[in-house]
Structures are given as structure tokens and as C-alpha cells.
Amino acid sequence: MPLYEYSCQKCSQKIELLIRGDEKPECPHCQSTKLTKLLSVVSGHVSNGGGDSGAAGGCGRPQCGMGGCAGLG
Ligand SMILES: [Zn+2]
Known about the structure:
Oligomer: single chain
Strand order of the largest sheet: 2-1-3
Bound molecules: zinc ion
Number of helices: 0
């Protein structure tokens, strides 16, 4: 079922609505139709978080820091 999340521009309420076909979303609080559609939160894509062993940044040694040991062999 298509469940969409909206933020009402009038009363700033965050609401979830089921929209089918050409139904117009309406705020259940103030009946305003000026709603901002919120994007669904998609989790699971973290690129620059660090925590990987080995890969980018350094060798993992304490003295390495941000790849400082790269030239030391
Ligand atoms: Zn509202």
C-alpha cells in the first residue's frame, strides 16, 4: 500500500496518508491541502563512516592515524 508521509505547511503537523489514484492529500488537522511530501527514509547506505578494517584512511595501527604510515613501508 502506498503510504506517504507529508508535512503540513499550515499547521506543521507530520502526517501519513494513503493516497490512491488522483486523490488529493489533505491535512486531517486543518484540512489544508498544502502539504509537503516527505521522502521516505532509506537506510543502509553509509559510505564515509569509517570503521572498515584495512581499506581507506590507513593501515589500522595506532601510529598510522590518517594514513601517515603510508611512506614508512
Ligand atoms: Zn494541517
